[in-house]
Amino acid sequence: MAVESSAPFYQFATLCEKISKTAIREKKTGYLKNFLDLWHKHYEQSYPTNPQPPIETFFPFMRLLLPEADRDRPVYGIKETVLARLFIQELGLSKGSEASETLLHWKKHKPQGVDYREVADFAGVAYHVLQNRIRKDDNEAGMSIRDINKFLDTLAEANLVGGDERKEQTNQAFRETWRRMDVLEWKWLIRIILKDLKLGIGEDAILNLYHPDAKDLYDVTSSLSGVCFKLLDPKVRLSEIEISLFMPVKPMLAETWSPAKLRVILKGNALLAEIKYDGDRCQIHKSNDQFKYFSRAGNENTEILGGGASEGNLTKYIADCFNPEADSFIIDGEICAFDMKEKCIATKAESYSIKTLNGENGYQVCFVAFDCLFYNGKTVTGLPLTERLAILKDLFQVEEGRLYYATRKKVTTPEECYEYLNEAIDRNEEGIILKQPSSVYKPNSRSAGWWKVKPEFVDSLSDQLDVLVVGGYYGTGRRTGFSHFLLAVAQNPDKAGDYPNKFLSFCRVGSGYTYKELQEMGLKLAPHLKPWNSSAKPAWLTLMGEKEKPDAYIEPDKSFIVKVSAAQLLDSDAFATGCTLRFPRLKECRTDKHWYECMTLSQLLELKGQSSGR
Ligand code: ATP
Questions:
Q1: Which residues contact 551 (CB under 8 A, 6 or more apart)?
Q2: Best of 276, 294, 355, 368 to mutate for ligand 1, by most ligand atoms within 8 A of CB?
Q3: pTM, whole model, 2 decimals?
Q4: From the centroid of its chain, how far is CA 466?
Q5: How far apart are CA 523 and CA 255, in angstroms?
Q6: Ligand 1 atom closest to the CA of 281, numbered from 1
Q7: Is residue 546 classed exposed, middle or buried when 0-12, 13-18 and 19+ CB atoms within 10 A define those classes?
Q8: Where is each ATP-dependent DNA ligase family profile domain found (predicted)?
Q9: Which of 26, 52, 141, 249 is the most exposed place for a label (fewest CB within 10 A)?
């Protein structure tokens, strides 16, 4: 008989209880390891050599140990309140009674005289409320692991049916189970239903204890059943983790970068710097005419984006762009919103849900590709990035507004890297991603040769800079209206208490706001703008010669103060203050401040003195 059918659930519940009760990590893993060793021993005895399918796997247990990672069973749609109502109804608890109030309001209403750690979650509270109310009937068969999985299948099926039938099926399933488990088993079944066991051992540790390749395989396939089926014996290793088409791969992630790390990473190495696109991570899987799309979490978005050549918000526009020689592939990239009016990729803040963009609100879906994981039947994640990019480069033709390659540049010095970041920020991008050209693609890894660089990682100036908008620069090409602003500080007035009447150019900012905010600022300024004329310059504004002269300027008393954040103050010969900001971004319009309350030159120089002393 299969272990699943003979293994009593109370043993599993007792194991979980033991693991959760000890705070010592080694003990926790020790208990689990003993349990897994028993399983592996059973496997060895039952399937000595060359096991033929159908093979009994650890999956029925694994999906109970890691319910949040089980993608084979649809969701139950059951939360704490539904369970509370079920218990109240089935146990006949009267409305308003202490017990039913505790179950319904378990977060606030805790059972008396119990250690708060015991009742931190609903299962803990239910355990105490149900303790004297649930009794296992010795005449009824206890629940096996198989029975529990069947019970959970019933809940998931009922949720798919929906409506009154769902309620009826769910109640029936509970009614039949009622007397077959004791209260400890109920506690653990509740945690399984709510998909949070609170064992104090993470998913990775559990997978690693099961098999040394389990985590890597799960990261690639997101399939617990696949892990248990492929990895039967911990002594038998997988030589290469194969990627499967139409199964989501957990994407490779980027480590947080710091200036100190940069020198180390760059030592003798060139890096590839790519724009960090501001959208949602997405994988395109394609085989012949079939497409599938997966999110970062492994959820499928094919219904919205399109499974066939004439379907969805995206596939129907890009299906013809792919190289006919590419029979099958998996591309990794970012799904973004494309601003149809301005003809550029929008920032996420400008749109609501990228997945539902259908062109009606002025935005459409577009995909930016930056990696290739699988090509014509072969997993290519083990190739260095440069070789994967060589495959990617011929995979499709760009389709304006729909399908792009990520922009990248080779950088060899920190200065080049800062310059690229500066350019990205100036274009209102989120940041850049640095990638080691030799790096292989490691699913779900955050430390395998990719670094994300965002200006806020190096921001040391965030609250001190309230400066005046004195001019604007018109966008070139795509963005109409102003794309950048010239900011200034005030020359200290001759007499304290007077309003300032001289201003010095200090910095140009082109980032940190959405297109809508930019338009709003443009509208505020529009009635007062004067075109810049170098032969009739405003006397109140000092520039550094002709450098950084704006396309239009605005009188200080018609303008407003903005707060900017930045990484650093740098010496500069382009602005009248003699210094400017590194990575400046606009944070907010200070409508609560008057124009004459703007930062003064002496305040700026004092700040510069302080920051260079750091
Ligand atoms: P953040 O909150 O900074 O977006 P995160 O924690 O969600 O970061 P990270 O892995 O730290 O995710 O940052 C990398 C994310 O940046 C990727 O998951 C991906 O969605 C996105 N991204 C945008 N452009 C690129 C690119 N060119 N290469 C890799 N990832 C990119």
A1: 471, 472, 473, 474, 531, 532
A2: 276
A3: 0.69
A4: 32
A5: 40
A6: 20
A7: exposed
A8: 358-492
A9: 52
ipTM: 0.94
Our answer to whether residue 276 is catalytic in this structure is: yes
* 127: enclosing H helix or E strand: helix 122-130
H or E element at residue 285: strand 280-287
Collapsed DSSP state (helix, strand, coil) of residue 224: helix
Q: 284 with 293: CB under 8 angstroms?
A: yes
Nearest CA, atom 10, ligand 1: 253
504-561 per-position pLDDT tens digit: 999 999 877 776 777 788 888 888 989 999 889 999 999 998 889 999 999 999 999 9
Minimal-distance CA residue to ligand 1 atom 11: 254
564 phi/psi in degrees, rounded to 5: -120, 150
Q: What is the Å distance from ligand 1's center to 309 Cα?
A: 28
Task: For the chain, list the domains and their CATH numbers.
Answer: 1-241 (1.10.3260.10), 255-456 (3.30.470.30), 459-612 (2.40.50.140)
Burial code (b: 16+ CB inside 10 Å, e: under 16) for 271-280 equals bbbbbbbbbb
Per-residue pLDDT tens for 191-209?
999 999 999 999 999 999 9
CB 541 within 8 A of CB 553: yes
